[in-house]
Amino acid sequence: MIALQSEPFEPGALLTRFAKGRSETGAVATFTGIARAEQGETRILELEAYPGFTEAEIGKIADEARRRWRLDDLLIVHRVGQIAPGEPIVFVATASGHRREAFEACDFLMDYLKSRAPFWKKEHGPAGARWIEPRPEDYADAARWDAEQETP
Amino acid sequence: MARVLLFGPLRDLAGWRERDLDPPPASIAELKQRLAAEDARLGEALSGKGVQVALDQQIVRGDAQLSARSEVAFLPPMSGG
Question: Pathway involvement (chain A) (predicted)?
Answer without folding.
Answer: Cofactor biosynthesis; molybdopterin biosynthesis
